[in-house]
Prior knowledge:
It is built from 14 helices and twelve strands.
Amino acid sequence: MNGQNPVFIPGPTNIPDRLRHAMNVQTSDHRAPDFVNLLAPLIEDLKKIFKTRTGSVITFPSSGTGGWEAAITNTLSPGDKVLVARYGMFSHRWIDLCQRHNLDVEIIECEWGTGAPANLFGERLASDTSHNIKALLITHNETATGVRSDIAAVRQAMNKANHPALLYVDCVSSLASMDFRMDDWGVDLAVSGSQKGFMLATGMAIIGVSEKALAAGESATCPRCFFDFRDMGNANASGGFPYTPPFQLLMGLRESLDMLFEEGLENVFARHYRLAQGVRKAVEAWGMKLCARTPDLYSDTVSTIYTPDGFDSNILTNHAYDKYDVSFGIGLGEMNTKAFRIGHLGSLSDVMVLAGLSAIEMAMVDLSYPVKLGYGVAAAQEYYRNSDNLAQSKAA
């Protein structure tokens, strides 16, 4: 790769020069008394991204997977029963993580391309009159299938069942790109990372924690050390870390938050909707189908696109990489060889997305796909030319 082309994978995302420069700083003393001047405002501003007033934000040097592990180990005990629906690779990884921690995992199997089954969750929780289920785990934005689930509907189902289970949400590929409302949706643990909507390098897990989840930690007995909420929370309260922090990432995060607030969160969400709609227009013009079954499930950060019968999606993404120096997401799990993914989140504009659509369109024509050169790009162009008011209306 020549390093000049943007990536169109759903994370890690493109790092703006402004953020690369912000992270290009010399080592500083994290034990110095003024470190709190960096850390404390970061924690408070992250609450605005999660949209929580009552919750806490805890970060760890890690990827989002470490955030998942922290959420589980700080609030549950071995043998606790948890309820999870499997509708994609990342909901499957929730399951795998819980099983490895010796939790009792009850799985609701769903077709890939569908979202979190609020009705089935509600029925199961209503039948759990002894309240044996301690937690419900959901992937907000299933990165493998390009599906966004309705977290508010899940919370409504939980409330209707009058069930006290904790609600865990993986929002790694949605936070800071699509609207997320931790308090309004009654989310107890929201797990994200630095490398997607925050447009930074991988290396920081960012977790929103409700008061109820913090209280659950008092009796949880899963072992934890590096990922201990208490250690991190106590150290943060006094202006520090319990161990060496990722200082350069923290500097980048400060700049990232400034960029998001300067654009305005509602404008960020509207931009991602507009970019996604352009991609969807291109997919329609190609005569292809999205994995997401219905428009209400469409993700605004990643589109998973089925290739026509007889065409291997891995050959397509490899060809785009080898010939045009552009990366697209491969199909994961059940989507392997059947679909490719276009990530359209983070530091992207409509012009950049058009470049990606042009590259994948050329790759498809090279491989004799039933696609006319320029059709998808033209459909996206036409949408972008006239989409400002539509995007603003959708965001409102």
